[in-house]
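Supplementary Text 2. Reproducibility record for the structural model of the 79-residue chain.

All settings were left at their defaults, and a single model was retained for analysis rather than an ensemble. We include the record here because the model underlies the residue-level annotations in Supplementary Table 4.
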Amino acid sequence: GEIEIEGRSIRKMKRKDIAAQIAVMSQVTNVYFPFSVYDTVMLGRYQHMSGRMFGRPTAEDREMVEECLRSVRLDNLRD
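Retained model, structure tokens:
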């Protein structure tokens, strides 16, 4: 079979481009780290933090995470 993202074969895409479109989150029920829902969603901003590997998220990063949480109605579970 073939896997496509927006009509493009993933075989022809760079890993960074694929990561910009999709992510995988384990459904294992045991939590191996003390991250909140907010922290976990913030992991999705990592690719946009080039040059800031251990830096703090920007205001834009924080707003994007808040927007994502609101859009799926998880903002009340953020912590």
